[in-house]
Amino acid sequence: MSKNDTEIVSAVQRAMADKVGHERFAVWFGRGVRMEPRGTKLRIAAADTFRLENLRRLFRLDLIEATRIAGSLWETVLDDVEFVVDPDLVNSTDRAQ
What are the residues facing 44 on neighbouring strands? Predict the structure, then answer.
């Protein structure tokens, strides 16, 4: 991920934590979840289908709003969120990256 991508993800994470609460954000977007810009979309990768479907159901609208906020701060067009399962995240120690 480029430095600009990292800064965009950090801005989305801050916006989401502010919106849903830092503790709730840490529970749902901590270990086993990765965020990364992909063109005009923010990709949310989760380790398993259960977490992925819950993220989609509980946070999709908040994520879209957060991506628009982050995109405007970094003059980047992020207009949608996509959700994918990435089994490699099962043993990941990355937190919300």
Answer: 35, 83
> Cα–Cα–Cα angle for 8, 11, 16, nearest 5°?
125
User: Does this model's pTM top 0.85?
Assistant: no
CA distance 70 to 8: 6
| Closest of 69, 52, 53, 57 to residue 18, by C-alpha | 69
The answer to whether the beta carbons of residues 44 and 83 sit under 8 Å apart is: yes
Could you give the CA distance from residue 88 to residue 76 in angstroms, rounded to a whole number?
A: 28
Q: How many Å apart are CA 97 and CA 92, to the nearest integer?
A: 11
What is the structure's pLDDT at 95?
46
